[in-house]
Amino acid sequence: MFSFLRPFIFNLDPEKAHDLAIKSLKYNFLPESLFSVKDEEILNTNLFGKKIQNPIGLAAGFDKSAEVYNEIFKLGFGFVEVGTITPKQQYGNEKPRVFRLEKDQALINRLGFNNDGSEIIKKRIENNVPNGLLGINIGPNRDASNMIDDFLLCAETFFPLGDYVTINISSPNTKGLRDFHNPESLKELLSKINDVREKSNFRKSFLLKISPDIEDSFIGNIIKLAQEYNIDGFILTNTTDRNRENLLDTKKKNESGGLSGRPIRDLSTKLIKKFYTQLKGTIPIIGVGGIDSGESVFEKLSSGASAVQLYTGMIYKGPTIVKEIKKELIIIMKEKGFKNIAEVVGSNAN
Q1: What string of DSSP letters covers 3-38?
Q2: CA spacing 20 to 30 A to 207: which of 111, 194, 197, 284?
Q3: Residue 3 has what pLDDT?
Q4: Global pTM?
Q5: Rounded to an integer, what distance in angstroms lies between the CA atom of residue 25 and that of residue 21?
Q6: How many separate helices (H) and strands (E) can be counted in the chain?
Q7: What is the dihedral of CA 213, 99, 101, 5, to 10 degrees?
Q8: Residue partners of 229: CB distance under 8 A and separation at least 6
Q9: Digit-coded pLDDT (tens) for 292-319
Q10: Cα 189 to the chain's mean position, in Å?
Q11: Are 258 and 212 in contact, with CB atoms under 8 Å apart?
């Protein structure tokens, strides 16, 4: 059905197509059984202390305001991350701000954390209990006088609700946000974020989402601070605002914003290997970037990711993408003699 509808969908503005997808999911007309596959128990794994059906998650950016996460679980995803959520409702940057690069199977976006704001989204989640592992991605408003204060407001709001909270310091579309990769700024942020957990009775996890554009010299300091302040996981990586040289879509490739999809597959995988080698298994990694097949998932897992997330791949391949990935991943694991996901993780990291 998606193959039939795709020409129509791709004739729409990307944001209008996205809004249509959200509205369609709210009707919840597809049975969950449609997305299950044979022998998928081999894909069962654990993430942040919770058993999930498979290691394939939906990345933040699709369900920005936590409207359809339970419907997304029914598409076969093992976990879902909503957001990025800011303290106040935010329109984001001016339109147009999303661009399809069809020849490259990629997107460029400069959305700017558009979302309904923490107050509305908190009530929405409270009134719609998640049916699976839910991550909540948080960030500062663009007009924040103090970004750390905005992070803390969101952390305190959502820490009781999600299974994990992602501290997003890596979007290229909020001025000054990536400065938190610097050791002193990151230390200040993580020390205060950790205070939120220590004051709470909830056993939840904090994750850190990293830019693919950092210098190798930053990795050691980021890992050291994450270990010092008990960060529970890394998401590697966000979009890149570089690496445009080899793109095929010459008309759109120089649009400002973050590039996602197939062109950043190798970039994110290389960073996963670098982090995994230094972490030595102490902190799990969620791998993101260019995932649209069982092969690309296996590549991320064997490079050191404990789980993966996708978004752009679903834009191009439609709502059955997880089903197809599961089929392919099961075949690959059986051919290579792996009995479970844990055996795959880091098997090709060196």
Answers
A1: HHHHHHHHHS-HHHHHHHHHHHHHH--S-GGGG--T
A2: 111
A3: 59
A4: 0.95
A5: 6
A6: 12, 13
A7: 130
A8: 187, 190, 191, 193, 194
A9: 999 999 999 999 999 999 999 999 998 8
A10: 21
A11: no
More confident call, 151 vs 2 = 151
Enzyme catalytic residues: 171
Decide: helix, strand or coil at residue 168: strand
CB within 8 Å of 144: residues ≥ 6 apart: 87, 150
pLDDT tens digits, one per residue of 96-137: 999 999 999 999 999 999 999 999 999 999 999 999 999 999
Largest CA distance in the chain: 54
Take residue 257 and report the two structure tokens written for it: 């914003």
Structure-token match 């339109």, residue found: 95
Stretch (H or E) spanning 308: strand 307-310
Main-chain phi, psi angles of 79, to 5 degrees: -160, 165
Residue 311 CA to residue 236 CA, distance in Å, equals 14
Beta strands per DSSP E along 53-132? 56-58, 79-85, 98-101, 106-109
Sketch out the chain's domains with CATH numbers: 43-344 (3.20.20.70)
Both structure tokens of 57 = 């998650």
Side chain identity, residue 271: L
CB within 8 A of 175, min separation 6: which ones? 142
Residue 341: the pLDDT is 97
